Amino acid sequence: MLTLDEMVGLLKASGEPTRMRLLSLLAEGDLSVKDLTAILHQSQPRISRHLKLLYEAGLVERLPEGAWVYYCLTRDEAKGDLIAAALRHVDQQDVMIRRDRERLEQIRTASAQQAADYFQQNAERWDELRALHVPESAVEQAIVASLGDEPIDQLLDLGTGTGSILSLLAHQCRYGLGLDANRSMLAIARSRLDGPNHGHLHVQQGNILDLASLDRQFDLVTLHQVLHYLDDPSAALEEASNVIAPGGRILVVDFAPHSHEFLRKDHAHRRLGFSHDAMRRWMAEAGFKLTIAKDLEQERRLVEMSDTPLTVTVWVATKMAGSEPM
User: Fold this and answer.
1) What pLDDT, in 10s, does the model give residues 181-221?
2) In terms of DSSP bridges, do strands 152-158 and 288-297 run parallel, antiparallel, or are they unpaired?
3) What is the pLDDT of residues 100-109, one digit of tens each?
4) What is each CA distance from 265 to 65, 78, 136, 260, in whole angstroms?
5) How far apart are alpha carbons 296 and 319 in whole angstroms?
6) CB-hemisphere CA count at 13 Å for 115?
């Protein structure tokens, strides 16, 4: 519950057109100051000032990532309920609100196209590029150890790329499906999985943020080095939750927080790694209970620019019975 003074303070902090527009946009997912500046067509100092007021009021939270800062709505239940109640009564056909949503969609489309272009250009060198970022053999060992020897009936690999995870878990699963939006990646994956021991593995083109067309539920969903390409990683976890049976598991492999800005510029990364707290929150919101969070220190230094090694994290979570994404 909120005290009277707290309630008045929150209403004052949000009771301004630009700040209400910011809250409406952040309800769609985490956004950077750069994104919000482009959407609202206001100066960076002005947007930062409004965000500072919302942050000081406890309505939003800051998520620093290298030289960028992302913002998200508060995790406080009472304050979150207040925001949700206010936004429910905002006319979604209001000219400014509708325009903001259109610009948000344009930014997300542009980011997705940038990533698609990158994958297209680097498809044949994909495994080589991954080797620059992380010792893949160590990650594969950690994945196998984290999953244990429990048989996998139905495996779904989102953003399958060259099919490395399907190949790694081929002996352990009865049926495996890999989804990827990029045809060049899928061609390489099909070649990789073309063999007598991989007849139960399949790949197809698909959008990992829209899994409604899948005709089955899975007991394991994997996202291997995928989330850092997304503007809103939590959306992928929520969508995955919709196709995981109760008691099923999700495995995420990605970078821990880092400051390698060149990965944004040269390798189409949107997010510079994820903290355990952020992943635990997103997992809980999607109906999962986090069971494993294991950091793997980089064994070799990056070839490019920095002496600071990248750390890869393996997260495993279980879908809670009766839970639905929030």
Assistant:
1) 887 788 778 878 877 788 788 888 889 999 998 988 999 99
2) unpaired
3) 999 999 987 8
4) 14, 39, 23, 10
5) 24
6) 20
